[in-house]
Design brief:
Shape of chain A: elongated
Largest interface: A-B, 86 and 87 residues
Oligomer: homodimer
Number of strands of chain A: 17
Radius of gyration of chain A: 28 Å
Structural class of chain A: alpha/beta
Number of helices of chain A: 15
Chain lengths: ~425, ~425
């Protein structure tokens, strides 16, 4: 079914809140086999809301709306929807007694405007709100459907999952399954060129590229009569893609790179310690987002000053003088220093120029060096970020560090495709 | 002017990304005096995109669009907009040479599909992209305007601020000026109660509270005929608010807490070193976001394991055994250990239980201890985050560390209002 997600609330148009409801509902509806064709947000304005509903039904069969069901004067969604669908509001005694009960329970007096929430379209399928006071509902007219739910996510989510999905069952004729193939080391335009025949030939499963800061993902999606058919179509395409660009893929299960690396370290019980300069702790911060990482993560030295590199890691001042604090030589001595001090099996270091200042022609902003020791293996890599901004350069260095670890732990070499 | 924010990209409709561009553009456009009446997101589908543009112009004078300007086949915004506005695409040689230059600089070969980005509507006002390859543009026709910008926020934000705002100047009939009063240590409902008479009495300037993770901001806004009038109305209201809750305010210039702290450290030339446990580098990562911080930031020890606390910081194993690794005593010994080792004037430490596991009845998830040494002054604080999630607990600990430093550097005591 062709659908629109409609968000009602002036606070969205002021940029006071981020529309996470649309993200959640899009994920849910797509996986249930609905085509989400539009997101629309509009303020608490009856005339404009009526216009949006009218034009939505030119392209869609169903509108999934959130917001504007509350007790205050500017909550008008119900009234407008009722009029658009040729129905009238009527008092629902059971909802009214629920609302009265909620106020009694929290020991507050119920102000009169709360009664408004118990008025519902006479033909509606009512979705009782177990978390708050405003009920939701579905209203059908002439083959078109509007579903209205409250805006606060903690009320919306349980209502959608427990009430709306069962209601929608009768409209589901297919299921969509998808996987995100996550890659590191190639740009979006290179990947598209490499996979163009697959992208061009697509009917089902479909294949699309998505650029993400510093990396690139591929979405493989299939819409079939049953979930099992969709899964097997997607998995067959994943294997085709893997045969082409397998060395760039680090996950087909929607894991982030740092999560994959954290998991590999924990699973293989590889102890790790680090030395960070330009990233200022960003690498360790990501690694320690992984619950349970304390089983393998020992410590990190954020050695920002030259002195701290010398004192904490034993980098020789001659190396810094001759090659610079940002050099392959310094990076390797940093990693070796961590190994000597901690005895961790895997030691990784980074030193670079994050910007905005400090770049030269030879060593521009965005250049960094990563040193790695893993048991007796040693490596150092020169990295050039294509970003111009401090935060992005640091983020890219962090990704490259994660990928170097991924490479040694998974036995696949680090490849950066140009 | 009546405006729509239009986001183009199928990934939005799949719920793969959150539409933060609409939040940013809504805030910007409202502050420039534009009325934002609609947000609309649509996929990379030419027919549907053309329909949305047509119906948007029934209600709006200007469409601010993002996305679909990239090099790949599914990037079609430019073609559709061009047709809707009665123009044709032409090669822009200067943009082409810019794109070629970017690929040359990063040492990658330019695939042919990148040339597409240099084709622009012949009548367009072009907005050069200083961060990426896809240029933006404005196109006018018959009193209606479409502005197209790239979707990635790191390209969109500088383009909007440096290129689009100057272009929009001629359409502004009033100016909105606002300040965000940033506070730390009080909840939103407490602040609203404290300032209720000001919030209720508002016509212009207006006052509104915004909860932000772990802190709370107040937006003071005024819409007047000239910027000078708006500024003076806002500043008068800021002084009234300051007289009420001045001790909670750390900025009225839209600086984040870590930026204020970084600035104070640099301005006062106070050297700083740190010891982080539960935050895993998050504090240092924030501090080193500040350009120029290397003048004062020396080093950090991320001492995750008990052993590393003992070996690097000289925490006594008896202290850890008696009081626990998460205790006021350990936090203070960590800060003292950093001071002894580095000689930095300001040394700060943190140890806590970020979760999801590891909490007890006495020391629940979300509890942390912060130790601080500043010259001869020593302090240790117990912090309880009211959040339930690992990431939020770490973030709140980081904010409290920043605020303790802010307090000692600005001479105002740390106040946490409940």
């Amino acid at each position: 079914m062709r659908s629109m997600i409609l968000s009602v609330g002036t606070e969205l148009l002021f940029g006071q809140i981020t529309n996470t409801n649309s993200v959640y509902l899009s994920q849910q509806l797509n996986s249930l086999g609905f085509d989400v064709l539009h997101h629309h947000s509009v303020g608490d304005n009856p005339r404009r809301l009526a216009d949006v509903i009218r034009s939505a039904f030119l392209d869609c069969d169903i509108i999934i709306a959130t917001g504007g069901l509350g007790p205050t004067q500017d909550d008008l969604t119900k009234e407008v929807v009722c009029e658009a669908m040729g129905d009238t509001l009527a008092l629902d005694e059971s909802e009214l007694s629920h609302i009265k009960g909620v106020f009694k329970r929290i020991g507050r007096e119920m102000t009169e405007n709360n009664v408004k929430q118990a008025y519902l379209p006479s033909r509606a399928t009512v979705f009782h709100n177990e978390v708050g006071t405003a009920p939701g509902f579905a209203l059908e007219n002439d083959g078109k459907i509007i579903i209205c739910m409250p805006g606060p996510p903690r009320e919306l989510l349980p209502m959608f999952e427990k009430k709306v999905i069962p209601y929608l069952e009768k409209f589901m004729d297919s299921r969509i399954f998808y996987r995100m193939i996550r890659t590191f080391g190639a740009g979006e335009s290179w990947l598209e060129t490499e996979l163009l025949d697959l992208i061009d030939a697509q009917t089902d499963p479909t294949l699309a590229t998505y650029a993400k800061e510093g990396e690139c993902a591929l979405r493989v999606a299939s819409k079939r009569g049953s979930e099992a058919e969709a899964v097997s179509a997607v998995d067959a395409m994943v294997e085709v893609v893997r045969s082409r660009i397998g060395e760039l893929i680090y996950s087909v299960d929607d894991e982030e790179l740092y999560q994959v690396v954290g998991r590999l370290l924990i699973e293989n019980y590889v102890s790790i310690s680090c030395a960070e300069s330009c990233t200022g702790g960003l690498f360790s911060e990501y690694l320690t987002r992984v619950p349970g990482i304390s089983a393998v993560f020992d410590r990190t030295f954020i050695t920002y000053s030259n002195n701290s590199k010398i004192e904490e890691l034993g980098v020789s001042s001659a190396t810094i003088e001759k090659f610079g604090a940002v050099s392959a030589e310094t990076a390797l001595e940093m990693a070796r220093g961590v190994r000597k001090k901690t005895g961790s099996r895997l030691c990784i270091s980074v030193t670079g120029i994050a910007g905005p200042d400090g770049g030269t022609t030879e060593k521009p902003v965005g250049m960094s060096y990563i040193g790695l020791c893993f048991d007796d293996f040693e490596d150092v890599q020169e990295i050039r970020s294509r970003f111009a901004e401090r935060g992005s350069n640091r983020y890219y260095s962090m990704l490259c560090m994660m990928h170097m670890i991924y490479a040694v732990l998974s036995g696949s070499p680090l490849k950066l495709r140009r």
